[in-house]
């Protein structure tokens, strides 16, 4: 741990249950966030005393790492960070995050059965990899899609390897069309959740073969995207294929673990998505245990 309580990029901080060989510690050091003055965390903690009705789960969720994320998201401005956090507490209650994660997950399972969004493996910095494949869209219901999104974000955060807290998003646009494109409303609500209620969660978003249709929609929603978030979005073309000595291949090899990356992206994991296997073991966040 550093002097202010942040985790350092040291092999000893990686859980023994995870392979330390999965982590490139030089890359990890580059991706870990900057330190936060403990006094600012204490100020946030003091403001949180106004919330006298926090549940035991909420109290565990509101650990120092959580407060640091909101402080970083608001450039260390305590008042703005607290306002943002208070809005998230309100949102989590109205959305029903706890009930969603501890419930029967029937809606999430139904939304997930085609393999449109799921978590699999980690990149070289320990970030969990969240795959999104819009071509497998099987629903037009915004509520169900957002429930699956929140479940998947919680699962991705939980499957990142400490001290890593962020996630990697891999968006595969193969087969993307108007038929499977989300509505602008769904995209805006997705961005709202990502930016305002899961701040400092996205490490990088890798967009594979984004078509002109997506580029048009991206331009429509870009004004609503935080500039810092926009910088994390990378567009990758695989016109030469990931098996060639291409820029795309070198990029993917420099970021992902080949053993856990799916074969269609240059990795060596050929196993197709299985809803049964994905939900065979219930995921429960650490703060709910």
From TrEMBL:
Region spans: Disordered: 1-21
Superkingdom, natural source: Eukaryota
Alphabetized GO MF terms: phosphatidylinositol transfer activity
InterPro entries according to UniProt: CRAL-TRIO_dom (IPR001251), CRAL-TRIO_dom_sf (IPR036865), CRAL/TRIO_N_dom (IPR011074), CRAL/TRIO_N_dom_sf (IPR036273), PI_Transfer_CRAL-TRIO (IPR052578)
SMART domains membership: CRAL_TRIO_N (SM01100), SEC14 (SM00516)
Gene3D superfamilies, alphabetized: CRAL-TRIO lipid binding domain (3.40.525.10)
Any Pfam family: CRAL_TRIO
Compositionally biased residues, Polar residues: 1-16
Annotated CRAL-TRIO domain residues: 105-273
Protein name: CRAL-TRIO domain-containing protein
């Amino acid at each position: 741990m550093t002097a202010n309580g942040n985790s350092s990029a040291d092999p000893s901080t990686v859980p023994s249950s995870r392979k330390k060989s999965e982590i490139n510690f030089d890359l990890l050091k580059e991706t870990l966030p900057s330190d936060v003055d403990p006094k600012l965390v204490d100020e946030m903690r003091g403001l949180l005393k106004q919330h006298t009705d926090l549940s035991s789960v909420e109290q565990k969720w509101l650990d120092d790492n959580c407060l640091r994320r909101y402080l970083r998201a608001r450039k260390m401005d305590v008042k703005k960070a607290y306002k943002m956090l208070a809005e998230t507490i309100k949102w989590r209650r109205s959305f029903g995050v706890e009930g969603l994660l501890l419930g029967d997950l029937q809606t999430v399972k139904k939304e997930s059965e085609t393999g449109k969004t799921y978590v699999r493996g980690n990149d070289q910095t320990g970030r969990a990899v969240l795959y999104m494949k819009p071509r497998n869209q099987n629903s037009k219901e915004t509520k169900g899609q957002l429930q699956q999104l929140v479940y998947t974000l919680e699962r991705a955060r939980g499957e990142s390897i400490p001290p890593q807290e962020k996630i990697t998003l891999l968006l595969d646009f193969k087969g993307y069309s108007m038929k499977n494109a989300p509505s602008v409303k769904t995209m805006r609500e997705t961005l709202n959740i990502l930016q305002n209620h899961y701040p400092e969660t996205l490490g990088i978003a890798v967009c594979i073969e984004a078509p002109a249709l997506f580029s048009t929609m991206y331009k429509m929603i870009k004004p609503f995207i935080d500039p810092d978030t926009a910088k994390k979005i990378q567009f990758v073309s695989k016109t030469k294929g990931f098996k060639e000595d291409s820029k795309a291949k070198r990029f993917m090899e420099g970021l992902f673990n080949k053993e856990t990356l799916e074969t269609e992206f240059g990795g060596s994991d050929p196993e197709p998505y299985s809803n049964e296997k994905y939900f065979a073991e219930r995921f429960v966040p650490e703060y709910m245990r």
